[in-house]
Amino acid sequence: MAKYVLGIDQSTQGTKALLFDEAGALCARADLPHRQIVNELGWVEHDPEEIYRNVIQVVKDVVEKAGIDKNEIAGVGISNQRETSVVFDEKGAPACNAIVWQDSRAAGLCEELEKQGAAELILQRTGIRLSPYFPAAKLSWILKECETAKELAASGKLHLGTVDTYLVYRLTGGAEYRTDYSNASRTQLFDIEKLAWDPEICALFGIPVQCLAEVTDSDGFYGETTFEGYLDRPVPIHGVMGDSHGALYGQGCVRTGMLKATYGTGSSVMMNAGTKPIRSAHGLVTSLAFRIDGQTVYCLEGNINYTGAVITWLKDDLGLIASAKETQELAQSASPLDTSYLVPAFSGLGAPYWNSEAKGILCGMTRTTGKAEIVRAALDCIAYQITDILKAMNEDTDGAVTELRTDGGPTGNAYLMQFQSDIAGMPVWVAATQELSGMGAAYAAGKSLGIYDMDRIFAEYKGSCYRPQMPEEEAAERYAGWKQAVEMICGK
Q1: Domain enclosing residue 206, as ranges
Q2: pTM, whole model, 2 decimals?
Q3: Which single residue of 44, 75, 305, 415 could bond 331 by disulfide (Cβ 3.0 to 4.6 Å)?
């Protein structure tokens, strides 16, 4: 009987089920979107129940689409949108909507801790700069503002964490309350050197440390599931990773110095930093890449709030395009003399600036600036933001960055990938498949189950490569214009 590994990628915009065969090849994919709940204050939320229902449905859909016997599924790996924060009770019922990673409503809490002088302690212990981007502040806000959450805390029935914890809890019927090391390291509540929840940091945010999930290896055992009775027998969940960490592993970045960029709603640029943490002096975050085979691997990372979401903004909010596919041709048709820059600080700027108060700007326009030029500026800002991170990584690692591996939907845009290579000044590899997050988690599960030989799989990396074509002087001039545009909203 054939053995298949199921990957579930629960991302910001939707949920995918991915089916991989015994050779690690993607056989089928099914996905469903979920609502983006945004109010007049710019708060961004998801309904955890809707997400869970979609998980169950996409599993059914992918099995039907692939035409396989569902009993041939040997195990499951889960990747998840990381900083999105969920609070739920002992039955798995959410206390409120999940606060999405893009949401900066907890900025005031961070400002209070900054005034108390706690920022440096938090950075040293967790590797993360104090910011409303991370779950610690989001969960703290919920515990202060949500009456149901307060009641759960008082009764000792409080469960809280990231989306992986919620899904594992629900899929196992409440039998397993776990998170993996990669997700734990992104909460801003985890000591990345002691590899444990930090009671002092938890107290600063008002979060009961005893209410946090058990931290488990990224390729560890997370219980069994039948997907609400859909499968005839339970199968093990044997791999969990944050989506960016899953992509790092799926890209085969298992050696120190290798790095990837995931182009999604936002973007994560992540470098495998080896078995010892590298402390950034240039606005990056130090986290755990993953813990596999009992070995902890660290990473340097820069996070960007709006990359692919800029294309969604062009389509849904401005109505400039009907689909993302139009952007490549429009960008290529734009006037080469146009000097427009878009800085998409719709909810502040992430790494390396960490300015939650910054507002977006479209500048450098002339009377001849039109739709094509604005669309090109929107694509260019993605590459500029990625390059900001790459330059910071080079500063932190004495120039170790020599090439970039990429994944995510926007990497199918040939204009964007060539511009990325030109502005970054290095080869840019585009993975043959765009499903690297779910693939990484599925590979971790399949490896643990004895199905995959990862040395063989990683040796067979497939992808296309873009190399710099723009003159270095022109690339430097364009990047300098970007930095000037950022200075307009952030200051020097």
Answers
A1: 4-242
A2: 0.89
A3: 415
